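Progress against Task 2.4 (sequence-to-structure conversion) is shown through the following example record, which the project officer requested during the mid-term review.
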Amino acid sequence: MSKDSFFRDDNSSSMGLLSLLNNEIETNEYQVSESTNQVKKDPTWWIAVVLSFAGLFFGVAIANTQRQQPIVEQNRENLRKSITKSIDNLNITTQNLSSINNEIAQVKSLTPGLDFHGLNQKSETDLQIISGLSAVQGFGYEIELNDAINTDSLDIDKLDLARIYDSDVQLLVNALWASGADSIAINNRRLTSTSAIRSAGDAILVNYQPLLPPYKIAAIGSRSIKEDIYQNADFQDLQFVVKTYGLSFKMSEFKEITMQATGVSLPDMQGITVGSRS
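Structure tokens generated for the chain above:
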């Protein structure tokens, strides 16, 4: 006789109660067992699906990146060539304009006494030299600034300071002007009263044109520039930066220097009154 039939055949109330409890326990055990098996199976299936989709998306992303990489590199190279070509064309145009301005100045020098309402030939020539509209030749000094080569003694957080910034060039230019320089050029870029020395990212801009190191600052003036500049406060600040971060600083001997014009012609002087009328 089975256990279940034994409980069902017994008519006593106690036996009925035991039968009810036995059925309830067996039912709960089956339900708990089935629920446990289901919980154990579900996470494995869910994780497998997620990993499959993640791998698919990752593979597609890698494939797209590898396919687009040559295009990006080609576009970058084309942009680099376009910028280089534009800079070369600008340099050629500047040289041509400078030559034309020099020819005009020579022609005007053959007509002494020419006067435009108080602006005579000599005054105009002086203005052209001061404003950088004419090429100039004379004796002076050339200073070369460059980034630090040996940075082993610097802390990691100061490595970015071991290069030339636009503020360093500004300090040197201001010191040269204050020491009596008549004309200044940076990497053959003539400076005038309206010249700007700025930065764009890591590049230094002079007259809004990017320059590359080393930065060669030429200054035409007397021999006393070399002595006077060491007494200038801006130059002393620059010397502190040079010594602290190991920047390269070289100053040439007194030599002959030629500077190109800015490539911009003077406006028409006719009708413009400068100075007193006679």
